[in-house]
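This is your field. Pick holes in the following sequence-structure pair:
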Amino acid sequence: MLSPIITSLQLAFVTTLILLIAGVPLAFGLSRMRGFKRALLESLIAIPLVLPPTVLGFYLLLLLGANGPFAPLNLVFSFPGLVIGSVLFSLPFMIRPVQTAFEAIPDSLFEAGASMGAGSWQRFYLLALPLARNGIWSGMILSFAHTIGEFGVVLMIGGNIPDKTRVVSIAIFDAVERLDYTEAHILSASLVVFSFIAMVLVSWVFRDRKPA
């Protein structure tokens, strides 16, 4: 049972790191955007929230598979392939809380920073990031926890290869198919406890969302 746990933790860590690096600037850009362009981009990012995971996994399989444009990269049934699927599927869980935190910052603070000669990147790093730290922590926790529990996307892209692409959710499915309910209970209970702790952390982080 240890191998799928380690694989899941590795996948969640890498996915969260990528989402932190790419998602935070994207969330900031969305928070400053207005009009139809913003609505279109927000809808595109939010699609994994309503789209069945197997649908996303299927189209990723077509893109990354033997007949797809990215076939030479050999990403199907590999850990990097799992990362790609997880990043796309967990993207809204990073973007939404971070974007909300950025939107809570008054425009007057950015205007004051600009009047003092701060450029756009200086206002982002020195002003927006510190004030949005609660949202960023929340996004990281949600992204990590959501990745740990993924099933449909990782199964379609990574399959079920021991010590390589078998994550906890797939190990639970395997255990149930083998009628090994003891292993299924242990792994499932672990995810329940982990999910509860993650929600407590999110609630604790957001206990005071007002900018300093």
